Amino acid sequence: MAKKKNNLYIIVVGCGRLGSKIAGNLSNLGHSVVVVDKHETSFEHLTQEFTGFSIVGNATEIESLKKAKIDKADMVLAFTNNDNINYMVSQVAKEVYNIPHVVARIYNPDNVPLFKQINVKVIIPMLLAENFFQRTFEDIIGE
User: Fold this and answer.
1) Is residue 1 part of a domain?
2) Residue 65 domain-assigned?
3) Parent domain of 97
4) What's this model's pTM, rounded to 2 decimal places?
5) CA distances (Å), 85 to each of 1, 18, 28, in order?
C-alpha cells in the first residue's frame, strides 16, 4: 500500500487480537507503529506484513514507554485486557507526555467517566455488541 502523506508515530499497548489487528492495519497504511506487550508470544498475532517494531515490556512501567519513545508519539492506543492498565497508560500518555490522541479499550462501561475526565476516547466491546444486537433484533421483529 502507498504511504500516507501524514505519517503518524503510533504506540499500541497490548498485542492481543484487537491490538495486533489495528497495529497491522496502521502499519499497512504507512504509519510508524510500535507495539508493547509484556508477553513475547503475543507478537505472534502480528501478520508477516507488519513493518513496525515490537517491545517486550510492562507498559505500567515508565521505562517500557520510554523505550517505545512515547515522547515522540502522535497517538497511543491502550488495548490491553485490563481497564486499570489501560487507564494508567492513557493517563501517562495524556497528562505526562501530552499525547494528542489517546484511545483505550474498556470492558466495564462504569469506567467511561474516568477516561472521559482525561479526554481519552474509548472503545467498549460490550456496548458495541449490545447495540449491534439491538439493531439486529429490531430488523428481525420489524420494529
Assistant:
1) no
2) yes
3) 9-141
4) 0.89
5) 33, 16, 27
